[in-house]
Structures are given as C-alpha cells and as structure tokens.
Design goal:
Helices cover about 35% and strands about 30% of the residues. By secondary structure, the chain is α+β, with helices and mostly antiparallel strands. The chain folds into five domains: about 55 residues; about 55 residues; about 110 residues, Thrombin, subunit H (Beta Barrel), CATH 2.40.10; about 110 residues, PDZ domain (Pdz3 Domain, Roll), CATH 2.30.42; about 100 residues, Pdz3 Domain (Roll).
Length: about 525
C-alpha cells in the first residue's frame, strides 16, 4: 500500500472515531482535540499530494532548462525593393487622399473625376495591403538543428527577407544566411557562423499521443525564451487552411499558448525533444485562442536533411488532379472507406504513362492505405524520383495494381497544370466522346470549369447518367453530339456510371443507340454505328 493510500485511510479512520465519540457522549473538549488531530491529518495528506504535483512541475522545469539553450530568436528585415514599393504606394495614397479632399470641397468638381480618384485610391490601398501581408513580421523563432550552425524554422519567417539576425539564449547575435526553403511544407533552414551551439534533438512525432504534455518555446511578440505548456489535443490535422498555399498538411494540434513570434520555434515533449515546429494558430484576430498547429518532426527532419544537402527538396509525384471520395460517394462505388479519385489526367505525366484513367480510385501506394489527398501526396512525395511505386486502384468496380515510375515534382505545379494538355474524362471505344460519371460528384480542374460543374449539378440535380465533357474529332460533330449532354441509357438500358456505359457499349451488336438529355431537359436519341 502506498504512503498516500495509508494517509487517506488514517484520515478516514480518524473521522469515524470522532463520529463515534460524539455519539457515545464523550466530553466535548476530548472530541474537539481528536477532531483537531483529524484535521491536522487532512492537512498533512494534502501536503503530500502537493509534493506529488511538484514532481510534475519539476519535470517541466527540467525540460525547459534542457531545451531553451537550443531555441533562438530570429529577426528579419524586409528587402530594399519591398521597402521602396511600400514607400512609393504610401506616397501615392497620400496624394490621392489630398486630391479627393480638394475635389470634395470644390463646387466645380465633377462626379466622374471623384469616382475615378476613389477607384485608384481603393486599388492603391489594396495593393499596399497585399504588399504588407508579404513583408516579414519582424520576428520569429527557430531551433538549433546541429553543431554546424544550421537552424530550423518556418519558411514564412524568413521569406522576402533582406537581412536575417539570430539571437541565441546566451545573448550572442549573428547574421544568418538562407540555406534553403520549402514553401510547400513552410520549412526553411538557415545557418550562422557560431561555435558551442546547443542542439535541440528532434524526437519521434509518430510516437506522440493525444493527451501528452508538451512545451512551446519561442519569442512571442519578440519576448525571447518564453515557455508555455499544454497537451497534444489532436493529430493528423489535414483539413486546415492557414492562409498559405501549403501542399503538405499533417499537423499536430496543441493548446499550448502560441502567438505571433512563436512561428518556427519547437514543440517539445517531456524528454526534451522537439516533436514539431510551431507554424500557425487558429484565430480570428491573430492571437492565441487555444488551438495551434505544429509541423511534425518526422516531416521536418526529412525536409531539413534535404535542404542541408542540396538547398532544395526533391519529391516524387504522379501528375494528376485529385478529389477525395467521401463516405457517401464511397458507398456509390462499393467502398467501405474514404479514398482518392483521379479527377483530371495530364498528358506526359507519370500517371498517364502508367495507364491511369479518369475516375480511377486510388486505394493504396506500396501497400500503405490512403484515404485523403494529403495522405496520398505525402506518400508519393516520399518515393524517390525514378523509383517504381505499386498503386492499387479500383476501376469500374474492379481492383487492380498499376506500376508507376515516379518522377520529380515540378517546382511550380500550377504552371505545369496550366500548360499540360488536360484529360477530363474517359473515351469508350468506339464513341467519339470524352465522358465522366455525373455521380459521384462531377468536378473539374479550374475555376471556370468548377462554375460549369456547379451549374451542371443544379441542372441535372439528383439525376444519374454519364456526362459528355469533350468531343473527339469530326465524327462527334457529324452526329450532333454536344458537350454537357447527359447519356442516360444505351439501347434502352439505363446507365448511371462509366462502368455501366462501358458494359452496355461492349454488349451492343452493330449499332449503339444512345438516349441523351440536354441542359434544357429535352430528350433525344442518337444512333451510332460501330
């Protein structure tokens, strides 16, 4: 039996004695002395409980003492060009404000002139606001990655920089050089010419569990070496929008107080290891509201190692546009879990060369199950360019495995998707059409097509069928096919998906009779010869 349990039993026994004495008519002063002794026992028991709590406080104290020497404050000044642009815009804004004021006071001012100046004034203010959003915030945090002077931080802390200054816990300050940055994960590596550095080791973020105590160390509001504590409140946060175009999002979530200036600093476990890099908070006003997000050390280590070796991060990719298959769509496809669907194919991409088709549902990569787009992106990114990945897919209800030679991810994926020929559907021989299932969820690749998709969904509602998304050659025009008609039946057999249409066409003898519905609701039939 532990000492705490013994104390509790003794107190309980004392209370029973007091109650028994009082019931037996023992004189009051005797009962009072015994009651005093019992109360004294309670106090002593509480003191021992406090001593147990002090053990946790001592643990926090030791972790902070061990970790703080490896945490640095980073101060960044904007580039000369950004400062000049800000000054130029500020001067023009002031001139326009003066001109608008003069016209407003003039009896001869015309309405058109005032409105033109106001439009320019609004445009200048918007441009200046966008510029100031890009300017460095002034300070951030980082952690010493190794004894050679490398420091791990966020990309958004040091991007658009002119000068980077690093302040160590012992007061030493150095100018830093940018070794490399990875905007897709919001990580960067800088270096200072310093000796006698205290390295903050990276721990295993996969081993961290919800409920684990953690410390956040950094320089919120420029206050260096600030330490806050909390717990890991969630793992695997992928559905988080941070106001930055991050491709790789698999965050830890913590309630440790993190504020502006903490970015780039470490989240530390009770072994004194950094299990993540603090990146953002969920807040409407930009200040801590009890929810903060952290890049796991597993990702940070991989990115930092590549940045140190080459100054850039090389990742594999498939070269397709994706969409997630949620629970409702999964049932339509005969799946019992979420997955990822190929939404748009691009010619000459690794997936195109491997034989992927639109509407292929990706289930796993190298036997690792994938259920979300971030999971798939992260899994493929870890495959070295040139290596072959085994990708399990479901196509028209049938599972199969494709071997894809993963290629190096382009630096600018958006530029690739803008310039590469896109394939939005599937061609079913001998039909001269590019086709997509209306359900689940017809979706396109760009903003204009997304608007079109929304209109189509509104037009056809809960209808089933296969949508014509493209025409292939003169044959399609000669038969008067039109984009965005809905194929609802083949030879009087209803079709709900590409799988249905493929089977119906294959079963057709010499002629294929397609029943169509257009956006106006008009029905028509087109006979097509093999």
């Amino acid at each position: 039996m532990s000492g705490k349990q013994s104390n509790r039993l003794a107190v309980l026994f004392g209370v029973l004695i007091v109650m028994g004495l009082a019931a037996a008519g023992v004189p009051g002063y005797v009962v009072s002395r015994v009651a005093f002794a019992v109360e004294q026992g309670k106090i002593e028991a509480n003191r021992q409980e406090i001593a147990g709590a002090q053990e946790l406080s001592n643990a926090f104290r030791m972790v902070a003492r061990a970790a703080r020497p490896g945490v640095v404050q980073i101060n960044v000044s904007p580039s000369a060009k950004d400062r000049e642009d800000d000054q130029r815009l500020a001067k023009r804004e002031e001139e326009l404000r003066r001109q608008v004021g003069e016209l407003a006071r003039s009896a001869e001012s015309d309405k058109d002139s005032v409105e033109e100046l106001m439009r320019e004034f609004a445009a200048i203010r918007t441009e200046r606001a966008q510029l100031r959003m890009r300017l460095p915030r002034g300070n951030g945090s980082g952690s010493v990655y190794d004894r050679e002077g490398y420091i791990l931080t966020n990309n958004h802390v040091v991007e658009q920089h002119d000068k980077i200054r690093v302040r160590l816990q012992d007061g030493r300050e150095y100018s830093a050089e940018l070794v490399g940055a990875d905007p897709k994960s919001d990580l960067a590596l800088i270096r200072i010419p310093a000796d006698d550095l205290h390295v903050l080791p990276l721990g295993d973020s996969d081993a961290a569990e919800v409920g684990d105590f953690v410390l956040a160390i950094g320089a919120p509001f420029g206050l260096s070496q600030s330490v806050t504590h909390g717990i890991i409140s969630a793992k695997g946060r992928t559905d988080v929008t941070l106001g930055r175009d991050l491709m790789y999002r698999d965050f830890l979530q913590t309630d440790a107080a993190i504020n502006p200036g903490n970015s780039g600093g470490p989240l530390v476990n009770l072994r004194g290891e950094a299990i993540g890099v603090n990146v953002a908070i969920a807040s409407e006003d930009g200040f801590n509201a009890g929810v903060a997000f952290v890049i796991p050390s597993k990702l940070a280590r991989k990115v930092a190692d590549q940045l140190r070796k080459t100054g850039e991060v090389t990742r594999g990719w498939l070269g397709v546009s994706l969409r997630e298959v949620g629970a409702a769509d999964a049932k339509l496809l005969g799946l019992d879990r979420t997955a990822v669907m190929v939404n748009v194919m691009y010619e000459d991409s690794p997936a195109f060369k491997a034989g992927f088709l639109c509407e292929d549902v990706i289930l796993s990569v190298n036997d690792d199950t994938v259920g979300t787009i971030p999971q798939l992106q992260a899994t493929i990114a870890e495959v070295s360019p040139g290596e072959t990945a085994k990708v399990e897919i479901q196509r028209d209800g049938t599972k199969m495995t494709l071997a894809v030679v993963v290629e190096k991810q382009p630096r600018d994926i958006n530029a690739f998707t803008r310039n590469a020929p896109a394939i939005h559907g599937r061609v079913i021989d001998p039909l001269p059409l590019e086709l997509r299932s209306l359900r689940p969820g017809f979706l396109s690749a760009d903003v204009d097509e997304d608007r079109r998709a929304a209109m189509i969904a509104k037009t056809y509602g809960e209808s089933d069928g296969v949508l014509i998304v493209g025409l292939k050659g003169k044959t399609a025009e000669s038969y008067a096919f039109e984009p965005y008609q809905l194929v609802v039946a083949v030879n009087d057999v209803p079709v709900k998906s590409l799988a249905d249409l493929t089977r119906a066409v294959a079963a057709s003898p010499n002629r294929i009779r397609l029943q169509l519905v257009d956006e106006s609701g008009e029905r028509r039939t087109i006979e097509f010869a093999r």
